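2024-03-11 09:14:02 INFO queue: dequeued item Potassium voltage-gated channel subfamily A member 7-like, len=456
2024-03-11 09:14:02 INFO validating residues
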Amino acid sequence: MAGEGDGSVAEKYVSCPTSLANYSMIRINVSGKSYQTYESTLERFPDTLLGSPDSRGRFYDASKGEYFFDRHRSCFTSILYYYQSEGTLIRPINLSPDVFLQECSFFGLGEEAQKILGFGDFEAEDPEDELPENKYQRMVWEAFESPTSSVVARLLAVVSLSIILISIVVFCIESLPSLKDMKVWFVISAVCNAWFTVEYIIRLACAKNKLTFLKGTLNIIDILSILPFYIDLIMKSVNATGGALEVLRVLRVVRVVRIFKLTRHSRGLYILGHTLKSSRSELFMLLLFMIMGVILFASGVYYCENTENTEQFPSIPHSFWWAIVTMTTVGYGDVSPKTNPGKVIGAMCALSGVLAIALPVPVIVSNFEYYYKEELARQIAEQSRQERRAREENANHISLQIPPPLSSSISNIDQEILELKGVKPAHSRQDLGNHYSKLSPKTTPSTPRRRVETVL
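2024-03-11 09:14:37 INFO prediction written
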């Protein structure tokens, strides 16, 4: 039984993928640091540099019997682990994303690195798919949507941002009692809304998909910031009274949403919006904790202060304000308990508020960090895309500038002779004969080149 057991164990060890009997060792030297692994480990991904014997053979040093790569050593540890773990690629914390992507691309793991860093999603979402097909519409669309595409786009972005800021400042200043009746504020608001209207119409006309454009969050904000001004003009022209004035006041308040138009020009606000959107469950949990705490402590402080402090705590709903201010640790001091039991409940309310607010904060911070890194990856991907396009354009430009090569029948010496005689170089044998007929007999091909040198 023991022998049979030993045999089965031996068979298991022999069939192991890392068996020395069936698999040979490979030594890899990366900038002076030596690595050893099995050839079968690298063959798991034959389409990569290390997995293909022909590809890695170019880096083989026969004198030392190893493969030498003058690359980043810390990054290669993650690359080798990709083969060992059968497809798990981990970026080192102390390594920047661009260096990691460059090293992985060299070893043929560029696509996997792009997936980890988020580059693949941005490459897949090519902005070319959103551009209009018409040439002129595309130029106008890029001028309004991509501030870095041209000088005109930068100027439009600056003008749009300036008008947004001016409209927000005017919205605040016109509420001052001493400046409320000045007509200049109406003129400035009219100019700002005219710009917003023209900008929205142009972008809508140039959009490739009109329905998608109308459903966009930022575009809905644009509509909400534009419509109140025109509704205000219409209601003033018909001398609206009564309930219509209340609607007018509400519409004037809606104009404040134009401050969210800054999101179009600020990537930080864009990241914050995505963070809040992805943290909906955590924010709902925070709201639920707050509601439970407000109801609980407002009820407790009401029954403790009901007999001696009825002016500040006349009912439980009136105590909600005190509970909210205490749980958020704001503490205005306008309402406060006077009895000892009420003070104990106030202390418990403050401590529970700190805990309730602190619990979901780490999750929100991690979401913000994730979207911040995603934005950095998007910027790097966009920069790489622009550099790739620039290299392609330069390559095409250089290929157009290179003159066509001379025929193989014209030697370098013959070409120099033609240039000295002021004759345009020929590109065919027939043209070559015509050119040589214009030269002196001493420099024709029929004259031996040694005799020409003697005469000279």
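2024-03-11 09:14:37 INFO annotate: The CA atoms of residues 29 and 445 lie 57 Å apart.
2024-03-11 09:14:38 INFO item closed
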